[in-house]
Amino acid sequence: QVQLVESGGGLVQAGGSLRLSCAASRRTFSISVMGWFRQTPGKEREFVAIISWDGANTYYADSVKGRFTISRDNAKNTADLQMNSLKPEDTAVYYCAGDREYAPRKWVKEGTVELWGQGTLVTVSS
């Protein structure tokens, strides 16, 4: 069974940067699309970014647009999230997600995906 494993979380000061990485245990069509969500205690998981299988299409939540960049390396089966100009409100557990089709509207409105990673904590101090 395919697994998604995140890495790169940690503690950073406001204004700083972090880079998250998500590695798929193997390539499979069922998770050809990859992306990220985040969740804080007491809140629903929210969409952050999505990238198509070839990297040609990306979509971001308004709250991170211009600060976060998603990319992928299909040779390594990885998808990264470069996070710059971090704010305390970016503090959350970040989850990697994989899905069959590039459907940003579904991810934003429904938050349903084919596969989730276990999550990595990002803490931004003020």
Low-confidence regions: none
Category from helices, strands and their pairing: mainly beta
Largest sheet: 7 strands, mixed
Element-by-element helix/strand order: EEEEEEEEEHEE
Task: Determine Rg (CA atoms, Å).
Answer: 13 Å
* Structure annotation, total helices: 1
Terminal-residue CA separation: 40 Å
Shape: globular
Return the average pLDDT rounded to an integer: 95
List its salient traits.
126 residues, mainly beta, four-stranded antiparallel sheet
Description of the structure:
The structure is a single chain. The protein is mostly beta strands. The protein is built from one helix and eleven strands, in the order βββββββββαββ. It has one helix at 104-109; strands at 4-7, 10-13, 18-24, 33-39, 46-51, 58-60, 68-73, 78-83, 92-99, 115-116, 120-125. The chain starts with a strand and ends with a strand.
Concise synopsis of the structure shown:
This protein has 1 helix and 11 strands. Helices cover 5% and strands 47% of the residues. The strands form 2 sheets. Strands 2, 4, 5, 6, 9, 10 and 11 form a 7-stranded mixed beta sheet that branches. A 4-stranded antiparallel beta sheet has the order 1-3-8-7, with no helix packed on it.
Write the topology of this structure:
Layout: E1 4-7, E2 10-13, E3 18-24, E4 33-39, E5 46-51, E6 58-60, E7 68-73, E8 78-83, E9 92-99, H1 104-109, E10 115-116, E11 120-125
Parallel strand pairs: 2-11
Antiparallel strand pairs: 1-3, 3-8, 4-5, 4-9, 5-6, 7-8, 9-10, 9-11
